[in-house]
Amino acid sequence: MTVYGYARVSTKGQSLAPQRVALRQAGVEHLVEEKLSGVADSRPQLARLLDTLAPGDTLVVYRLDRLGRSLPHLVSTVEDLANRGVSFRSLHENVDTSSANGRLMLGFFALLAQFERDLISERTKAGMVAAAAQGRAPGRPRALVGEKLDVARSLRDRGYSYAAIARSLGVAKSTVATALNP
Asked: How far is the C-alpha of 152 from the C-alpha of 126, rounded, in Å?
């Protein structure tokens, strides 16, 4: 039963010192630190820490936003910890999943996360209906159309790879593959 801490700042110029001090005062035995934006898809130090946690352990963060990229991501991460028998604490928001109040707060956050997902879904559907009513195809406009698409086809016919075509047209390789293989 070990108490782990996770501290993160978004930029190299920011200091981890305030988080470090608060986490040590909260009884953290093993502290993992990361200087990386919270919206980054890959946070290697956090991933290793989450893999390390075992039943009976506790993960402590200074603030909720240090752990999750978004509310749904945060709730998912904390629910996964709970399912593995790992407690979670956030010092700033005073959330502690080892207590009834902390579990209530987590449930509240889960409801908010579901509400946020539902709102996004409703807005997306409304946008698609509005686009269709205006005679437009829903979704993002295609990057390769007209002359650019003709150039991509010509280059492919001459044996160029998707990657080479993408570089020459300034688009992603997947964009080329999608456009040339409808």
From this structure: 34
CA 153, CA 39: separation in Å to the nearest integer? 36
- Residue written as tokens 């650019």? 148
Q: How far is CA 119 from CA 39, 72, 97, 128, in A?
A: 20, 13, 27, 14
Q: What is the pLDDT of residues 146-182, one digit of tens each?
A: 898 999 999 999 999 999 998 999 988 989 998 888 6
pLDDT digits (tens, 9 = 90+) for 43-55: 899 999 999 999 9
| Helix, strand, coil percentages in the chain from 3-state DSSP, rounded to 5 | 55, 15, 35
**pTM of structure:** 0.63
Contacts of 173 by beta carbon, 8 Å cutoff, 6+ apart: 162, 163, 166
Q: Which residues are catalytic?
A: 10
